Amino acid sequence: MASVRLVALKAPYVPSSLRNLSNFLLLRTHAFTVRDFSTAMSPPSTAVIYDQYGPPDSVTRIVEFSPVELKETDVCVKMLAAPINPSDINRIEGVYPVRPQLPSVGGYEGVGEVHSLGSSVKDFSPGDWVIPSPPTSGTWQTYVVKDQSVWHKIDKGTPIEYAASITVNPLTALKMLEDFASLKAGDAIVQNGATSIVGQCIIQLARNQGIHSINIIRDRAGSDEVKEKLTKLGANQVFTESQLEVKNVKALLADDIPEPALGFNCVGGNAASLVLKFLRQGGTMVTYGGMSKKPITVSTSSFIFKDLSLRGFWLQQWMTSDKAKECRKMIDYLLSLVREGKLTYEMELTPFSDFHAAMDKALGKLGSQPKQVIKF
Ligand SMILES: NC(=O)c1ccc[n+]([C@@H]2O[C@H](COP(=O)([O-])OP(=O)(O)OC[C@H]3O[C@@H](n4cnc5c(N)ncnc54)[C@H](OP(=O)(O)O)[C@@H]3O)[C@@H](O)[C@H]2O)c1
User: Fold this and answer.
1) Span of the secretion signal (predicted)?
2) Nearest residue by C-alpha to atom 17 in ligand 1
């Protein structure tokens, strides 16, 4: 703790009761205050904040926060990496069902290294790698101070970009494969948005269980290359949307692939209709995202003659506090798959200093790009 206290001696004092962001911002203008030297303090933190909802490329800015005092059960974590997910963008836009209180620090998941501990923390040591689990708002900053109950220790042998991004998307893929149908080896699933991280995870988790995947991607220049990449991950069939402009999409199914009972939709619009067309009698389509921002249209005959079911999935809803244990077990399983080379997905690590360039890529300004993960 000695080095932390040294920092604290020189730093402005911020009482723990004033830890919320608006108070930080106010305190940044206050004079230094005398304090108790025995209290552990965090280092100052550099953070991406937004004080109004709107386009993330214009409402986010980088600020410096004063050190904060660690309460007895707090853990101060030096962040190593955190991804930019579509839901982070939606939160900043103010269109997510849970609207963060403003001003707010961006980010929801990530990985960091334990820097210092409150006086009664026993289960962590400086240097441990931890992730917030379930995730928690405010990971886009260099130091995060939260109660010990927030943090889950993970194996340091995990590449940081995977440790940072293991919850929101891979866990969604795993949970959705388990929750909506009892699939067995030889069965098939169909999905759109197959290039997304969730999509790439669904392909691999299905393959690991002997389940076939039928994948739909947007038309683009270089679609053959994308198809090849997904096939290498274990995709059985990959179609562009335009390839599916045929009367009977099921005629395109390979001989060894049965009609799927389960479909996943993260796009909406025509891409959702294509998932429905592949489903077998009594099949289910689970919607978990709406990347095209277009509504889903379902034909009357899909209900009457195919008796299809439409369901939805929201990870944040499931990860309520009583699910923390289950959630952490699943995370450990997913991280072990990563370390064994059985789960991989495309990401780009971008230095924190280039945050706005990473955000532009995440916003799709440069066309389809790998998942952006900020490296602190
Ligand atoms: N419900 C939940 O609990 C939950 C949890 C996790 C994720 N999600 C949702 O799952 C989806 C995928 O997330 P992710 O982080 O895995 O994605 P990602 O890796 O950031 O990739 C974005 C995906 O969206 C596609 N896309 C982007 N703009 C599009 C548009 N205008 N029309 C159609 N497709 C578009 C991209 O396709 P291209 O390759 O063609 O660019 C790519 O497949 C998002 O909607 C996210 O909000 C939901």
Assistant:
1) none
2) 196
Tell whether 176 and 217 lie within a shared domain: yes
- Residue 54 exposure: Cα atoms within 13 Å on the Cβ side: 10
Write down the pLDDT at residue 38. 56
AA letter at 297: T
CB 287 less than 6 A from any atom of ligand 1: no
Among residues 96, 143, 288, 345, the one annotated as catalytic is: 96
The tally of domains found in the chain comes to 2
Regarding the beta carbon of 42 and ligand 1, being less than 6 Å apart is answered no
Q: Is the pTM of this model over 0.70?
A: yes
Residues 238 and 358 in one domain: no
Same domain, 73 and 185: no
Instruction: Say whether 205 sits in a helix, a strand or coil.
Output: helix
Determine, yes or no, domain membership for 334: no
289 lines ligand 1 (CB under 6 A): yes
Cβ 313 under 6 angstroms from ligand 1: yes
Residue with tokens 């004080």: 51
User: Residue 76: is its pLDDT beyond 50?
Assistant: yes
- Cα–chain-centroid distance for residue 62? 21
The CB of 87 under 6 Å from ligand 1? The reply is yes
b/e per residue 301-327 (b: at least 16 CB within 10 A):
ebeeebebebeebebeeebeeeeeeeb
pLDDT digits (tens, 9 = 90+) for 307-356: 999 999 999 999 976 888 899 999 999 999 999 999 999 999 999 999 99
- What is the per-residue pLDDT for 207? 98
Q: Residue 119 pLDDT more than 80?
A: yes
Going by alpha carbons, the residue nearest to atom 41 of ligand 1 is 368
pLDDT of residue 321: 67
Give nearest CA residue, ligand 1 atom 16: 197
